[in-house]
Amino acid sequence: MLKKHLQFNFAFVIIFIVQLLVESDPVTSKLVLLDFHYLVKPLITISLMLFLVYHTQLKGRFAKRVFGGLLFGLFGDCFLMFQTAHPSFFLLGLASFLIGHLLYIMAFYLDYIWNSRIQKGYTRWALAIFGVFCIVFYIYLRPYLAEMKIPVMVYAFVISLMGIMAANRKGRVNTLSFELVMWGAVLFIISDAILAYNRFVLPFETSGLWIMSTYMLAQYLITMGAVERKMKKKSAM
């Protein structure tokens, strides 16, 4: 896969590295990049949207919904970049990512209903693992959330459902697409969990590196999974 999309992967690695440098040393990066550092973060999703359009021409509901998820990820990135300017920007960013996750859920659901009879055992495991994580992590965060209890509860439920629906694609699409999207969903949950811990519980110095590295990989893997997607023939298992 890396060799197959070599030019794009090289460009995305450059964006990835520059964004991590911005997160690791914001002061120096602003001096070196000047105002261009504001363009680096949006390039994450913009590059992935262009890549998706090039390879799929947005044919079919799946590609359109993944594109929509990336678009709202772009909105979320932009709002969070300026969250220090106004507190409402954090909520707008949260809402943007929430809509993005809902669009991913709607995309993954298309593959689930293709043949909902198969892989029932895997579905039960996904429900148990992601459901338990959602409940336990929310209970842990709840004392720190103040007026954000309900928004965070809704967000935790939706992102866990996104993970469940990503897992439900097993056996319905080719293995490569399933694994790429599945790992993308897991990394997205990890990224959001780190962000929530850093914002509500205990800020830590390297949080930006961990949040952005997992987030960028998550969006990359989901996009690649959408490009590599091939439906399997319907069969009972």
Automatic annotation (TrEMBL):
<feature type="transmembrane region" description="Helical">
    <location>
        <begin position="66"/>
        <end position="83"/>
    </location>
</feature>
<keyword id="KW-0812">Transmembrane</keyword>
<dbReference type="Pfam" id="PF07947">
    <property type="entry name" value="YhhN"/>
</dbReference>
<feature type="transmembrane region" description="Helical">
    <location>
        <begin position="180"/>
        <end position="197"/>
    </location>
</feature>
<feature type="transmembrane region" description="Helical">
    <location>
        <begin position="34"/>
        <end position="54"/>
    </location>
</feature>
<feature type="transmembrane region" description="Helical">
    <location>
        <begin position="152"/>
        <end position="168"/>
    </location>
</feature>
<feature type="transmembrane region" description="Helical">
    <location>
        <begin position="209"/>
        <end position="227"/>
    </location>
</feature>
<dbReference type="InterPro" id="IPR012506">
    <property type="entry name" value="TMEM86B-like"/>
</dbReference>
<keyword id="KW-1133">Transmembrane helix</keyword>
<comment type="similarity">
    <text>Belongs to the TMEM86 family.</text>
</comment>
<feature type="transmembrane region" description="Helical">
    <location>
        <begin position="89"/>
        <end position="110"/>
    </location>
</feature>
<feature type="transmembrane region" description="Helical">
    <location>
        <begin position="122"/>
        <end position="140"/>
    </location>
</feature>
<keyword id="KW-0472">Membrane</keyword>
<protein>
    <submittedName>
        <fullName>Lysoplasmalogenase</fullName>
    </submittedName>
</protein>
